[in-house]
Task: inverse folding
């Protein structure tokens, strides 16, 4: 890189504190494999459940930060008339798997700066017959010209190429990916909303699954579904006034289309800000009590484990061999040693289902629930800090978006919101 | 007679839809010329097709003959496709290739491309003729069964 670029890097400002911001009322709504309802149903019902939990009126919500693939031709402004509300802050975040953390960042600044008092952050999508096929057939101009015509419809093929390259480069095996999928299924077995939570998954099941593309088999792929995920954002002062328990943001960042000269993706933007997140949060990876990665495929979760500092690049295979990834530390016989890092504690998309853009909120909403102690059978004991990361938008051959946040329960000593 | 006439109509085709820019590759595919967008300001090749240069943002891109050699980044066999044309011919080989000229392209494998000029020989081809990761390949631009432009890669001997 040129010296001018390095100087520019040095001069780059950092995100200021998220102090004073409260995340409250996490909801996961309406999960179904398919639905005849439109996206507005899942967004609207998420909003309805949140305000009921918060004990507020819909007119108290003066900001909306919305993500949806299936809302078209409507947009967030259409929702104002549909829901009959008059917000003074609107955001629509078309960032798929990174949209939850990005919505949270935008909303937090709006609340800090007085542009809104209560922002509803929601990802919601429907899944109607054929709608997933339609989405992937025309996802972007680049996919239309350069990947879809080759049979590489949808993300499976792009991720198969990424997975194949990663396996050849770092020696990760299908069993290693299986450890992630199986631990998540165990977590889902304890989370009633998970659409696959009623089924168990063994290593034999995993390894003998139907092949999809290259090394990617059925249990490496998410099941598209309908659903909504969301939470409310407000000041700590307001949360206290309303008597709402809340979670704080210790640090958050995003970076898109980073490492763009890598011919094949094996890392994403997290590598360039993970250290700054830990610095701002004043904790390290060892202090993280749960990790929620964007698991559209297990290889992407491995990249996040590496890029967010839980292990070195290429060492996620060893990490998952030595670390219990379940919410309760059960190693299920698939990992050795005493290490434990609860990972995708609701089952992740692999076992909950991928409700379009709502999947980009899944780990964030689950983290808020966990840190509030409101998870039920899958509650992580004594959880104080969560790392949540987002990833998304396969515009051609790689995911472009990266986002990540460190959240804290407000009973923990490092919580940022006083 | 009627049956043979109807055959082409009912036969499954690969997806023919392209952007306006992507469709501009068709005449070069007809001529068997490998062309990509090249920038008149910085001389870099860009792909997938785009409106401005991906290096210097110049708007002055034109289709120029591009060096055809590259290296396979990864190869996968597709066992699933939403497109009936591919779904009926699984597994289908998909290659990602880093061209020496810069861009990364997805390409069919010449030995399993289902192209009209490869006809019924497809079944008989040997596994070794399919490129794998790390292999050097030569890329060509051809018309597929939907008369749409696609890249096809062949291992360099
Ligand atoms: Zn240029």
Result:
């Amino acid at each position: 890189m040129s010296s001018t670029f390095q100087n520019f890097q040095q001069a780059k400002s950092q995100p200021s504190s998220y102090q004073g911001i409260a995340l409250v009322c996490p909801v996961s709504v309406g999960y179904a494999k398919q639905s005849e309802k439109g996206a507005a149903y899942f967004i609207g019902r998420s909003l309805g459940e949140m305000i009921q939990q918060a004990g507020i009126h819909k007119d108290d919500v003066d900001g909306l930060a919305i993500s949806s693939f299936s809302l078209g031709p409507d947009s967030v402004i259409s929702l104002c008339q549909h829901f009959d509300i008059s917000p003074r802050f609107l955001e629509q975040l078309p960032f798929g798997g990174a949209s939850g953390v990005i919505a949270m960042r935008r909303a937090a600044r709006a609340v800090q700066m007085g542009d809104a008092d209560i922002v509803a952050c929601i990802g919601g999508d429907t899944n109607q017959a054929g709608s997933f096929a339609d989405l992937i057939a025309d996802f972007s101009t680049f996919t239309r010209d350069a990947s879809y015509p080759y049979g590489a419809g949808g993300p499976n093929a792009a991720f198969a190429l990424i997975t194949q390259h990663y396996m050849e480069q770092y020696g990760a095996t299908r069993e290693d990916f299986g450890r992630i999928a199986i631990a998540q299924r165990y977590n889902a077995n304890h989370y009633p909303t998970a659409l696959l939570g009623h089924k168990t998954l063994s290593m034999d099941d995993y390894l003998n699954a139907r092949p999809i593309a290259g090394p990617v088999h059925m249990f490496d792929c998410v099941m598209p579904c309908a659903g909504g995920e969301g939470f409310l954002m407000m000041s700590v002062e307001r949360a206290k006034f309303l008597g709402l328990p809340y979670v704080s943001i210790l640090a958050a960042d995003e970076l898109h289309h980073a490492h763009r000269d890598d011919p094949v993706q094996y890392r994403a933007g997290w590598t360039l800000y993970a250290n700054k997140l830990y610095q701002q949060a004043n904790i390290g990876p060892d202090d993280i009590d749960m990790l929620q990665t964007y698991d559209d495929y297990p290889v992407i979760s491995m990249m996040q484990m590496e890029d967010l500092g839980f292990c070195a690049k290429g060492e996620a295979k060893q990490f998952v061999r030595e670390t219990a990834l379940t919410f309760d530390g059960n190693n299920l016989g698939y990992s050795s040693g005493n290490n434990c890092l609860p990972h995708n504690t609701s089952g992740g998309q692999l076992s909950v289902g991928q409700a379009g853009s709502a999947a980009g909120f899944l780990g964030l909403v689950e983290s808020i629930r966990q840190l509030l102690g409101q998870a039920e059978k899958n509650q992580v004991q004594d959880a104080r800090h969560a790392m949540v990361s987002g990833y998304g938008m396969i515009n051609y051959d790689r995911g472009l978006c990266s986002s990540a946040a460190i959240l804290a329960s407000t009973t923990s000593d490092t919580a940022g919101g006083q | 007679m009627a049956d043979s006439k109807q055959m082409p109509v009912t036969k499954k085709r690969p997806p023919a839809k392209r952007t306006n820019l992507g469709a501009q590759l068709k005449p070069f595919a007809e001529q068997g010329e490998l062309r990509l967008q090249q920038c008149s300001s910085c001389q870099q090749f860009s792909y997938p097709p785009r409106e401005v240069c991906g290096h210097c943002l110049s708007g002055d891109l034109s289709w120029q003959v591009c060096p055809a050699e590259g290296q396979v980044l990864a190869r996968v066999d597709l066992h699933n496709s939403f497109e009936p044309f591919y779904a009926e011919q699984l597994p289908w080989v998909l290659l990602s290739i880093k061209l020496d000229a810069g861009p990364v392209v997805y390409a069919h494998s010449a030995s399993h491309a289902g192209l009209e000029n490869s006809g019924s020989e497809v079944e008989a081809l040997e596994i070794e003729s399919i490129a794998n990761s790390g292999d050097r390949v030569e890329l060509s631009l051809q018309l597929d069964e939907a008369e749409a432009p696609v890249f096809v890669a062949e291992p360099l001997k």
